[in-house]
Amino acid sequence: MTPVDRCSDTTRDWVCRAVRIIEADANRSADTHLLPFPLPADWGVQLYLKDESTHPTGSLKHRLARSLFLYALCNGWIVEGTPVIEASSGSTAVSEAYFARLLGLPFIAVMPSTTSEEKVALIERQGGACHFIDEPSRIYEESLRLAEKLGGHFMDQFTNAERATDWRGNNNIAESIFQQLDLELHPEPAWVVVGAGTGGTSATIGRYLRYRQLRTRLAVVDPENSVFFTAWRDDNPALTSSRGSRIEGIGRPRVEPSFIGAVVDRMIPVPDAASLAAIRTAEQVLGRRVGGSTGTNLWGAFGIVAEMVAQDCPGSVVSLLCDGGERYAHTYFNDDWIARQGLDLRPYQQVLDRFLATGEWQYF
Length: 364
Hints:
With 364 residues, the chain is α/β, with parallel strands linked by helices. It folds into two domains: 27-55 and 167-358, Rossmann fold (3-Layer(aba) Sandwich), CATH 3.40.50; 61-161, Rossmann fold (3-Layer(aba) Sandwich). It contains 13 helices and ten strands. The longest helix is centred in the first third of the chain and has 20 residues, at 9-28.
């Protein structure tokens, strides 16, 4: 690859055009909706879901990808022709492939060889290429190696997520939530409930709450086989696991650099069967399918709502609808797949049914 003069007027002009292109994409898109989740009025508690599935690439990761590209461009890491490499087999890769295509840059997602055909197709549809490895634990190492070989840039979402987003405002997700709550009955929610994958979203929201001197608390839900909860509880950021999360987009086998545990007020471990039971419940109530990470969010949010009802504490709770369920037709919404995973959703479905009928949270 021919070396690029990063200080030339030509390079600066290209970077200026690239930033405008990415900002124009944001300007073309209306903000995502804040949807009320129907709960009985006499409970005195409102639950809202920030619907991130309406982004052009269909998920919360669209915000992250936009921020990562702006961060890399303004740091001088990406110039005209720079190959962009990311360690991701899911929504982040889809969104980054989208922005790379807008800028005319090659994009490569480094992913395990077991990645589903549906995900590969989504990345390739946005113009990205997929680089497969047999050992998932080598995904970071292989991404760095590939970037060095090609003279490219490794985005490294897990390190740069919390750095790339301006947590003080500038149209981040926290600022958007509070602007949309402004005319609601309880505009300052008691809790915001999110999951952690990179840790960037929880870091942004937690910092914003403190910066704006808000009394809202931040709860982070964590699925099975993820170390975030245990590492936070035991104050052990070096904790690792050899297993990965079934709930795509959240949960990690290590504490990622972007996860800032000090801004988290509460962490809630959520069984995978509970997450999947919650997405079945959401489909019945909302009339649409949502992804597994949304189910994890809902399980945590429902538990907090039930506590507020039991304590006769009126207020509001906000969580995220991270992506649509159409990406998971062959997994989370497939009874045969669930059976192969050895998961039994029925006990958790009973908890949810009782909660929606009575407001009580009887979690065994």
